[in-house]
TrEMBL record:
This is GNAT family N-acetyltransferase. The lineage of its organism: Bacteria, Bacillati, Actinomycetota, Actinomycetes, Micrococcales. It comes from the Bacteria. Residues 4-150 form the N-acetyltransferase domain. SUPFAM superfamilies: Acyl-CoA N-acyltransferases (Nat). InterPro entries: Acyl_CoA_acyltransferase (IPR016181), GNAT_dom (IPR000182). Keywords: Transferase. It holds the Pfam family Acetyltransf_1. Gene3D superfamilies: 3.40.630.30. GO terms for molecular function: acyltransferase activity, transferring groups other than amino-acyl groups.
Length: 150
């Protein structure tokens, strides 16, 4: 999970964030510690986590949890959805999304901007920009997308 998480960041964020962050030799071990904690610590019991596999290898990861905003109008937040670029268009991204978020669930997520492929994927699944944006610690601009069930 950690290796695919880092590989997807390298594929997605190259040019959007500093190379020294993406190529840091401690990046995979740090993500390994994160995933170990998410999968075992009691405070993450309410999270939903899924992986996509191909030929016995993890090729994608997804995770939702409770909203980080106290006044959120949505019930879930998509924290993670990464799929190795070699599997884009395979349906695995949709499978991951549905594994951690019901199609009729109100939800929000933050997505890098620009990231037209991811933004199009989320629009296809009913998410729209709500006007909120931020710049994360690595200098990546992100916009918030939300989905309200109809």
């Amino acid at each position: 999970m950690a290796r695919v998480h880092v590989r997807c960041w390298q594929q997605t964020y190259r040019g959007l964030m500093p190379d020294h962050v993406l190529d840091d030799p401690g990046f995979v071990p740090a993500r390994q510690r994160l995933w170990d904690q998410v999968l075992t610590a009691p405070e993450y019991r309410g999270h939903r986590t899924a992986v996509a596999t191909a030929d016995g290898q993890v090729v994608g990861v997804a995770m939702t949890g409770t909203p980080r905003d106290d006044d959120a109008a949505w019930t879930r937040e998509l924290y993670v959805l990464y799929l190795d670029a070699t599997h884009h268009g395979s349906g695995a991204g949709t499978d991951l999304l549905h594994a951690v978020l019901a199609p009729d669930e109100a939800a929000a997520l933050w997505v890098a901007d620009p990231n037209p492929r991811a933004q199009a994927f989320y629009r296809k699944h009913g998410f729209t920009p709500d006007g909120a944006d931020t710049i994360d610690d690595d200098g990546v601009t992100e916009i918030r997308l939300t989905r309200t069930p109809t």
